[in-house]
Amino acid sequence: MALFCAFALRLWYLQVHKGEQFAQKARENRLRQEFVYAPRGLIYDRDGVLVAVNEPAYALGLIREDVADIEKTLAQVSEWTGQDIAELRATYRQGRKKVKPFDRIILAPNISFDLLSSIEAGSHRWPGLEIMVRPRRNYPQGPLLSQILGYVAEANDEEITRDTDLQLADTVGKQGLEYVLESQLRGRKGLRQMEVDASGRLLNERQVSQPSSGQSMTMAIDLDLQQFATEEMEKLGHAGAVVVMEPFTGQVLAMVSTPTFDNNAFASGLSTEQWAALRDDPRHPLQNKATQGVYPPGSTFKLLVALAGLHEGIIDPSETVFCGGEMKLGRRVFRCWNKHGHGRVDLKRGLVESCDVYFYEMGNRLGVDRMEAFAKASGFGSTTGIDLPHEKGGLIPSRNWKLQRFGERWQGGENLNFAIGQGYTLVSPLQLARFVSSLLNGGFLLKPLLVDSEEPVVQGRLLATAQQIKMVLDTMVATVDMDRGTARRLRRSDARMGGKTGTAQVVKLKTEDRGKKTEEIAYEFRDHAWLVSWGVKDGRAVVIVCLVEHGGHGGEAAGPVSRAIYDYLFGPLGGTSTTMDNWPYVAGVEPNPLEKYAIPLQIVPKTAAKAGKTGKSGKLAAPKSMTQPVGLASADTTEGANSVSR
Fold first, then answer.
1. What CA–CA distances, in Å, run from 441 to 71, 401, 515?
2. What pLDDT sits at residue 267?
3. 3-class secondary structure for 266-327?
4. Disordered: where is this region (predicted)?
5. Catalytic annotation on 299?
6. Rounded to the nearest 5°, which phi and psi values hold at 454?
7. Where on the phi/psi map is residue 176: left (φ > 0), alpha (ψ -120 to 50), or beta?
8. Which runs of consecutive H residues, i.e. helices, occur in 174-257?
9. 3-state SS, one letter per residue, for 22-54
10. I need a surface site. Which of 39, 256, 349, 526 has the fewest CB within 10 A?
11. What average pLDDT is seen over the chain?
12. 287 phi and psi, to 5 degrees?
């Protein structure tokens, strides 16, 4: 009797008290849910050419609850795919910890079409294994846009924890625009409910919710121009960068960084060996040198120092300084790149022939505080805010920075190196492109834009008058037009061109290496070559900045690349030359169209120039990065009496 009562009590407990719970579990075992992947938004170039698309990809998944013998099943997968059995076991164990019951564990994320047919032919003998169809990102142009587009890859644990919409094996943007625009590009998954029998065979299914595609984007990049500029850089065989920018919109038409990599390799999955080869390459193909590379600006920085001197009133354009090939400050000697000297030099000739002694004198008069303030107010020392991750802001040194970094006081001789773009100063090619654009557009510092539909974003204004800016632009024109000009390679009879070369020392050369030709110096010790320039033809204006790592002299290495790009943009020689008088915004003759994007700003008085004020206006306000303290950027730089810049 007691035994019967116990049995009846247990039966009541299971059927009545726990009945609904077990019924729910039975329904869950019969009904399964799975997410339906949403197509990622497409990306186009400015002319509507697809540069990031989706294609079907096949993966082999495993549902643990449907597998009778996991070890035999993994061995079969290894036989099919050629994967190491130990790696498959590790993948399975890791996935088992992260997925919910009846969720799939991805064992082989990328299965070829040929292998797919073999697996499908034998998969019926292996319950729990399923072929999955998922969208995979594809970049038709491959390496050409890798530094800009970036790539997608599987979400890591941190990303999955942070974003509840993500699951194991989901892909997310990891670099470039794919990363920055992740929320717009990703879209929203759908949900499907499936009814299965005890063996896991599908009986019925219904769509609970439809997937929503991600938003498509159009870039400002011109694909044909990007390809042309890349080919010109690759002819040199050097690492480097090119930025082509519209000065009145901030749109970036081309952004080249060489060498590059194939972002499709990341979308399909890199091996450990492939990743190590990219990571350890001394020419850093994973680095976007236009935004993440920071270098001494060399003589390109003389444009800023000239403008600062005019603004501060310490430069009279007609005043001359004598250059005998060197300048003495105390017991130190600072040499000009022209050891024979330039003779009497005024502002125009100082920039045209890039006389170091002239700018040593300007740096000595300005001092570190005013040069620091003017440089930071001109956008250096902070990021530009471009829609790319991991941008570097470079370095504009100061008294406090040196004291904190080295525990040393600022020395007078360092003002001289500062003025010729040597010493501690570091800038990126994109920063220089924005600065040169501001000279041409009337003084507006614009955010560089990679998305075509955006309006200009004004982040600040130069601390100079329109007339002072025009004086600097006129010297850039002379640097191209005059026979002794260092940028004379850019000269075209049908366009107004302006430029400034720069030769940035990487290390201080040994005595026996001074005077040698570039090709006679060890590659890693050769100077970096700069050319910053602009061109105006038939109402179209563009700015081009070219950096060639270890290229030697700016005009010789960067000049041919820049000239080729201008010829591509402007076409064969023909038409009439565009003079600066026909570019009225520069001289302040007509209202500047950029005025509507920013509140009117007062020119900062000379006595307050150290503050480096910039303007803000609603959504067009400068990003936070414009005002953040500058961190120390590591790079090979040089300081001392032998620094010369050309």
1. 69, 32, 40
2. 73
3. HHHCCCHHHHHHHHHCCCCCCCCCCCCCCECCHHHHHHHHHHHHHHHCCCCCCCCEEECCEE
4. 611-646
5. yes
6. -75, 145
7. left
8. 176-180, 182-185, 223-236
9. HHHHHHHHHEEEEEECCCCCCEECCCCCEEEEE
10. 39
11. 82
12. -90, 130
Does 452 have pLDDT greater than 60? Answer: yes
Size (the chain), residues = 646
Residue in the structure block whose two tokens are 């984007």? 217
User: What's the DSSP call for residue 216?
Assistant: P
Instruction: For residue 618, give Cα distances in angstroms to 75, 377, 421.
Output: 62, 19, 34
Tokens 């790696």: give the residue.
87
Half-sphere exposure of 355 (CA within 13 A, CB side): 28
Q: Which domains does the chain have, with CATH numbers?
A: 28-218 (3.90.1310.10), 223-268+293-626 (3.40.710.10)
Alpha helices in 482-579 (DSSP H): 554-570
Cβ(630)–Cβ(393) below 8 Å: yes
pLDDT value for 422 = 95
How distant is the alpha carbon of residue 82 from its chain centre? 38
Q: Tokens 């850039």, residue?
A: 476
Q: Which amino acid is at 428?
A: S
Element (H, E) at 72: helix 70-81
pLDDT digits (tens, 9 = 90+) for 319-350: 999 999 999 998 899 999 899 999 999 999 99
Question: 329 — phi, psi (to 5°)?
Answer: -135, 105
pLDDT in tens, 93-127: 888 887 777 778 888 888 887 788 778 777 778 88
Average pLDDT over residues 377-382: 97
Asked if pLDDT for residue 217 goes beyond 50, the answer is yes
Q: Is 429 left (phi over 0), alpha (psi -120 to 50) or beta?
A: alpha
Task: Look at residue 14 and give its three-state secondary structure.
Answer: helix
The tens digit of pLDDT for each residue in 33-58 reads 777 788 899 999 999 999 999 988 88
Tokens of 9: 């009590």
- What is the reported pTM? 0.82
pLDDT: is 616 or 594 the higher one? 594
User: Phi/psi of residue 333, each to 5°?
Assistant: -120, 125
Catalytic residue, candidates 299, 354, 428, 645:
299
Give the H/E segment covering residue 194: strand 190-196
Q: How far apart are CA 303 and CA 184, in angstroms?
A: 40
For residue 199, what is the DSSP state? Answer: T
Check pLDDT > 80 for residue 626. no
Q: Which residue type occupies 172?
A: V
Three-class HEC string of 489-557: HHCCCCCEEEEEEEEECCCCCCHHHCCCCHHHCCHHHCCEEEEEEEEEECCEEEEEEEEECCCCCHHHH
CB 194 within 8 A of CB 171: no
Query: Would residue 250 be called left, alpha or beta, if left means φ above 0 and alpha means ψ between -120 and 50 degrees?
Result: left
Name the nearest CA neighbour of 307 among 535, 603, 601, 530: 603
Q: Is the pLDDT reported for residue 641 higher than 60?
A: no
Contacts of 583 (CB under 8 A, 6+ apart): 440, 496, 536, 541
